[in-house]
Amino acid sequence: MSIKVALAGVGNCASSLVQGIGFYREHPDAYGLLHKEIGGYRAEDIEIVAAFDIDRRKVGKKLKEALTCKPNCTTIFYKNMPDFPVVVQMGPVLDGVSEHVKEHDDDYSFSIAEEKPCNVVEVLKESGADMLINYVPVGSEQAARYYAEACLEANVGFINAMPTFIVSDPQWAKKFKEKNIPAVGDDIKSQLGATIVHRVLTDLFEKRGIKLIKTYQLNFGGNTDFLNMLNKERLDSKKKSKTNSVQSQLETPLPADKIHIGPSDYVPWLKDNKICYIYMEGLGFGEVPITFELKLSVEDSPNSAGSIIDAIRCLKLAKDRGIGGALTSISSFTMKSPPEQYNDNTALLCVEEFIAGKKGQ
After folding, report:
1. CATH code at 260?
2. Helix%, strand%, coil% for the chain, nearest 5
């Protein structure tokens, strides 16, 4: 059994995913997976069958080579990367590249290929892809919707790993439901990243009777995601996604002036390392103040792949079962802005019930 996956964006997250496929193929009992098997599918059963990008250093190259081209900068934790017989094809640029990145060194920014975009729908159909993962940059609203439409036309499942609200949008969810195409989204929630940690701590305050009165989360890193987000105009959906994910854990959401969550700066030499600072201030017994501060340092893209690996297999399981539309359980577990927000314990329980066939979606 195999799961055929197409990639919209051949950046750091795609690199970590492909490395992971090879790593768990060689080391099937290694740590790092929540589910070694989902519906009979293991991580090593994933096969990349198509890939799209817009960078001149990647378009036209074999996937294995393209994944190591600049501006990719993530850790190579598995050097014997699978050599899938896939050539990276030119996708539509649309709003995928912010003007400000052109002011930065070519090694760190995007460089648009002088190629004519391929017919994405046709490529998806010919590849036999079960699904496409949307890895286009934050703020690429037009590009994200383009790939969602392509999946609807090609009858291909859709995983939206970036914060354009598609799967969580009732109108879009209806389109996937009507065509019986499964979809997971929106905005990948890393395996152990800033959002999941902030959510769990917020839930802990709530469950232990501590009134959270103010909080912030500041993030910075050196990959193209952080470079891209220097353009504040591209940050709106990202800030909403991250903020709403944390607010969803509170019975009474914080006032807007008491919560600040979002990317803060770009430091090139950090590369794919992401640094997060979380501050929380609350009132405990007798309304005595409690403050909490945390620093988290993670390699951003493998952290993302640790979640997407389950989303891929759950979507394939849904497709095998003839289930279409937004998959609420795995979306809530792996995404910041799912169609339905659960606390993380409930989300995990729902995923386990879905895998066991006790929960439809």
Report:
1. 3.30.360.10
2. 40, 20, 40
